[in-house]
Amino acid sequence: MRTTEERLPTALRLLTQNIRQHRAETRPGQSDHWGDRAPVLVDLLHAADADVVGTQEVLPSQIATLDEALGATHLRLGFGRDGGGRGEHNLLFLRRERFEVLDWDQFWLSEQPALMGSVGWDAHCPRIAVWARVRDLLAGGELVLAVTHLDHAGHLARERGAGVIAQRLTEAADGAPVVLMGDFNAAGGQSIPWRVLRDAGFEDAHEVAGVHEGEDIGTFPDYGPPAVGGERIDWILTRDLAVDSYAASVPELDGRVASDHATLTATVTAR
Q1: Which of 1-10, 72-81, 192-201 has the lowest mean pLDDT?
Q2: pLDDT tens, 55-90?
Q3: What φ, ψ does residue 5 adopt, rounded to 5°?
Q4: 253: which residues sit within 8 A by CB, 6+ positions away?
């Protein structure tokens, strides 16, 4: 793990991971068994050494694993979609030594984003976005960091959800740079939510990265072999930041992988 002195003070390392829900009905040896996947997740998070980590599909039973990997170094933000610590979480982890949190909150991707549990449009279940406005103590300046999940929602829900995200993050940023990470269940730069966010000034880190590290794989191998040029449904989006590098990878430990989704990382700097 790199020390503070070894870090480039202006570089910001990002990671987003859909960790896949803990399914109690799975058994050891099955690809989806959480007990087999959890150590892989801890290992990859330690190895990545990211300043900002966004996670999706986190159930309460999985939070301890994330805290094991990141609790000593990162602050955890986010609460369950059923209130408090109940239900599925999107969690944002911020390196303590680097960031001072100025403000943070969580809102619903629905017709009533201020009303917890509200569902609108054609969504099959409520989705949430967690954001934080922070002061970067190493690079200087302020920025807004966010994690969301638009999976298991119809096209209309993803379109309007993307509109809520764009509006809320624009308001929270008030001119500061923005990072948005998540699983949008929407592939390709022409998808509706991506068009909405692009119109709001967001750029796809994959598209604008100065360097692509490793093979250019898709983000949803579903426990199978990653496909070069495969479908990308997970995203790192930025606004008013330079993307120096981007990578999608599927780290393994003892032949196991952490999730059905790939791990996305990017390094960004101020423009």
Answers
A1: 1-10
A2: 999 999 999 999 999 999 999 999 988 877 888 899
A3: -65, -30
A4: 39, 40, 43, 44
- Compute the distance between CA of residue 179 and CA of residue 260 in angstroms, rounded to an integer: 23
Burial 206-222 (b: 16+ CB within 10 A, else e): beebeeeeeebbbbbbe
Residue 264 to residue 241: CA distance in whole angstroms: 17
Residues 233-258 have a mean pLDDT of 96
Which residues, at least 6 apart from 88, have a Cβ–Cβ distance to it below 8 Å? Answer: 21, 57, 58, 59, 80, 81, 82
Position 152: which residue type? H
Supply the pTM of this predicted model: 0.93
In sequence order, the 6+-apart residues with CB closer than 8 A to the CB of 232 are 187, 188, 206, 218, 219, 220, 248
d(CA 252, CA 270): 32
